[in-house]
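Hi F.,

I've been meaning to write this up properly since the lab meeting, where we talked about keeping a consistent format for the predictions we share between groups. The idea is simple: the sequence comes first, exactly as it goes in, then the structure tokens exactly as they come out, then a line or two of notes. No screenshots and no reformatting. I'm using this chain as the first example so we have something concrete to point to.
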Amino acid sequence: MKNRIKFLFLIILFLPLILQGCYRAPIEEPYRVKEMESLIKRANRAFEKGNFKMALSLYEEALKKSRIIQDDNSTVMILLSLSRIYTSLDKIYYAEKCLNSAEELSKKTYLPESLFEEIIFEKARIGFLTNKNSEALLDKLIYSDSPYMRIKSLNLLARFKMRRGANEEAEEFLNKSLSMNNEISKIEQANTLRLLGELYAKKNKNKSLTYLLRALSIDRELALPEKIALDMEILAGLYKDLEDKGRAKDYFLRAFEIWKYLGREENQIRIMRELESL
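Output, unedited:
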């Protein structure tokens, strides 16, 4: 009996040490990865707020981190983000340079299908901005496994169609995009509504107004200054066509204020010309 009590006592005495020896702390994420991810998150927030210069600086710092640790997936994602910022700053040369680097890296390493699709989409988007015939790049993306990719590809394809006057096809793509966007992406929902507003501006101004106001409501909810300014500028043009000079002037001035805050001088000049014509 005494031996049994002694045995139990020893187990109780050494149990904490045994458990401590078996315990393994969870593996922490390497600090360089944490630094990179933190930079990307901060850059994303700056980009959403329209602070492109800060976003650019943060993404470039994140790019250095990703190259140091040879994280190819993160490198491609950062290069695509840099490409989008450069196009927002009208620096197409640098945007294409980033995109080309991402494309070259994609040929040398394994990437998930989603990243390959993002590269193709960005190529098509830059093609649209530079008036290149890159519409065919979207033919497969509108059937992507990713609903988000399908939605934004349909929106971009509609823009191509609108540019060359194929408005019926554009409307079909936009309605399809809108119907499948069940809270998948509010940003793309607003983009679709804005494009529908532009599409109806000539044939049904009341319907155009409804779409544009819905787009503005979403962009305000998301607090996206660049999108809000764009909505207001288009609305101002619509009210100008409706000969409602009061509302037209109000929306032009509101858009001007945002573009001024964002430091977009070209947009400010464009609005000043519109105001002079009222």
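Notes:
The mean pLDDT is 88.
The longest helix spans residues 2-22.

If this format works for you, I'll send the rest the same way.

G.
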